[in-house]
């Protein structure tokens, strides 16, 4: 298997954490490398970091400029063996390569050092959030929190054993990846490391004719965020559209037939072998469990994954504050839009939210803000204001709870469905409440939309949107209406905005959005939103504050300002 050098602070820190977790009581702080200099410096100083493990690339591109702002830092360990000298760095900071560290660890006087075993209540990780709103907060995760979380997750994955192979490519500062990998380590599963740019044969950093990491590793287990799964779905469906009439008809017939059989509880081995084998091979051909988390997965994408990749696709729900654990759907549950029942490590209850109109006595399903309680609920935010700690509380039975801010409803079989989020709810001038997350989830299913951010101002009467269009679909639409220009010119074209808005409106009506929920004006973005741009988190969640700042001029234009 390929060996990849750490690409982020989080990856290298977790490698170090694995040793700490097993033998000594060392607290590790994780940061996304894309947080930006000021945010990373804030976290390093807040946690009083003395040692950093990172890569040479990140040291030179991300850390060097802020080292002067981190006075307590003493040692930096580079995860390679060159170079041995580092001119131009602040005095008092020692930089070591891995060979020097290994040599130091092999010294006889070091081998006899007493190792202090951690207590369950000791802080194992201070995990800094990706900062979708405001300054990143450090979530304090104890050893017992981690054990509880991975125990709950592992119980929901059938037949987890040493024969399983997991492919890791998400940032290890993401609680989903942290939990997934520690779960695999605890069960003896093998782990192969990849990256989003080398994951499949068609990835951007895979040379044409070469194989991607999934083809080589052939993993049986995989975790993914919906953004990645949506990309796979759209890429495959684009290829389906390029098939000749006979091939496309055969694919559609097989797809619909398998959907019917899955609903009845049957398998379709012949269809799997003859029609879906090549699609399944995109992920190596052996994937048996695909876990989605971090954001809602669209019903269309989930059904596609179930059918074409011939494996269980489970949606999970959890937060950094609950150590990634909350709910996971059962492997046999092919329903869509739900995140499963509570894991064995926690309890879930719903709290009335009067302002939003959600109540635990609602019919046919009780609704309300989701509260998660149990040993997986973390210890709070590190050195944070008391106001930020208000979402944590302890009940009369001494059980710790976290108020998630998400709105859910329970179905009769005990499965949870996420239906709204308190922070995404905006009240328009006329009094209607608009769930921005709901609007975005519905419109992402439109083939013309690669990404979308809905925006609404309480002083206005309508919703607007920022759209990253699918390049192939937009170019085809432009050609259909004989509109010429470069990619940037097309995205800046008022005529193209109107055409895309028309397509989006039709998709919104088909998805049964209310008229007041449908964006009335949009702005097309020629550049995709990536963690590097600072407009989305590492898990590709929208950073609404940054997006608002980035598109402030367009907001004023679309709302009739100067």
UniProtKB/TrEMBL annotation:
Chain ranges of the AMP-dependent synthetase/ligase domain: 27-382
Catalysed conversion reaction: a long-chain fatty acid + ATP + CoA = a long-chain fatty acyl-CoA + AMP + diphosphate
Enzyme class: ligase
GO cellular component: endoplasmic reticulum; lipid droplet; plasma membrane
EC number annotated for this UniProt entry: 6.2.1.3
Domain of life: Eukaryota
InterPro entries xrefs: AMP-bd_C_sf, AMP-binding_CS, AMP-dep_synth/lig_dom, ANL_N_sf
One of the protein's GO biological processes: neuron differentiation
Keyword terms: Fatty acid metabolism, Ligase, Lipid metabolism
Family assignment from sequence similarity: Belongs to the ATP-dependent AMP-binding enzyme family.
Name of the molecule in the record: long-chain-fatty-acid--CoA ligase
Species: Mastacembelus armatus (zig-zag eel)
């Amino acid at each position: 298997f390929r060996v990849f050098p750490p690409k982020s602070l989080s990856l290298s820190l977790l490698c170090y954490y694995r040793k700490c977790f097993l033998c000594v009581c060392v607290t590790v702080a994780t940061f996304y490398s894309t947080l930006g200099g000021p945010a990373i410096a804030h976290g390093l100083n807040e946690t009083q970091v003395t040692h950093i493990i990172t890569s040479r690339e990140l040291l030179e591109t991300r850390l060097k400029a802020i080292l002067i702002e981190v006075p307590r830092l003493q040692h930096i360990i580079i995860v390679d063996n060159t170079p041995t000298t580092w001119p131009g760095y602040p005095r008092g900071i020692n930089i070591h390569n891995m060979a020097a560290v290994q040599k130091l660890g092999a010294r006889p006087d070091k081998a006899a050092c007493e190792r202090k075993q951690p207590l369950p209540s000791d802080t194992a990780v201070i995990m800094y959030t990706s900062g979708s709103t405001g300054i990143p907060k450090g979530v304090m995760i104890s050893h017992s929190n981690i054990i509880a979380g991975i125990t709950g997750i592992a119980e929901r994955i059938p037949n987890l054993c040493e024969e399983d192979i997991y492919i890791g490519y998400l940032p290890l500062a993401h609680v989903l990846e942290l939990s997934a990998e520690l779960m695999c380590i605890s069960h003896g599963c093998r782990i192969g490391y990849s990256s989003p740019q080398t994951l499949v044969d068609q990835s951007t950093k895979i040379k044409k004719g070469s194989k991607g990491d999934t083809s080589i590793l052939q993993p049986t287990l995989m975790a993914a965020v919906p953004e990645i799964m949506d990309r796979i779905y759209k890429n495959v469906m684009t290829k389906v559209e390029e098939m000749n009439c006979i091939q496309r008809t055969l694919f559609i017939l097989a797809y619909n037939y398998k959907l019917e059989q899955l609903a009845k509880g049957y398998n379709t081995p012949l269809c799997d072998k003859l029609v879906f084998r090549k699609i399944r091979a995109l992920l190596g051909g052996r994937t048996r469990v695909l876990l989605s988390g971090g954001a809602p997965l669209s019903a269309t994408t989930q059904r596609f994954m179930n059918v074409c990749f011939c494996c269980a696709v489970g949606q999970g729900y959890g937060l950094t504050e609950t150590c990634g654990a909350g709910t996971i759907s059962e492997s046999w549950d092919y329903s869509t839009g739900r995140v499963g029942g509570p894991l064995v490590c926690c309890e879930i209850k719903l709290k009335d939210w009067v302002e939003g109109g959600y109540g635990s006595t609602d019919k046919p399903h009780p609704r309300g803000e989701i509260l998660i309680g149990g040993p997986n609920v973390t210890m709070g935010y590190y050195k944070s204001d008391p106001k930020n700690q208000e979402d944590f509380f302890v009940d009369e039975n001494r059980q710790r709870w976290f108020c998630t801010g998400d709105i859910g409803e329970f179905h009769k079989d005990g499965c949870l469905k996420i239906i709204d989020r308190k922070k995404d709810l905006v009240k328009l001038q006329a009094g209607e409440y608009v769930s921005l997350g709901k609007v975005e989830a519905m419109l992402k299913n439109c083939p013309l939309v690669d990404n979308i951010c809905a925006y609404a101002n309480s002083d206005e009467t309508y919703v607007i949107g920022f759209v990253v269009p699918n390049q192939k679909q937009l170019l085809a639409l432009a050609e259909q209406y004989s509109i010429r220009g470069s990619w940037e010119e097309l995205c800046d074209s008022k005529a193209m905005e109107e055409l895309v808005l028309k397509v989006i409106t039709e998709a919104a009506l088909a998805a049964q959005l209310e008229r007041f929920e449908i964006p009335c004006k949009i702005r097309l973005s020629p550049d995709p939103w990536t963690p590097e741009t600072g407009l989305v988190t590492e898990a590709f969640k929208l950073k609404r504050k940054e997006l608002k700042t980035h598109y402030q001029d367009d907001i004023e234009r679309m709302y009739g300002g100067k």
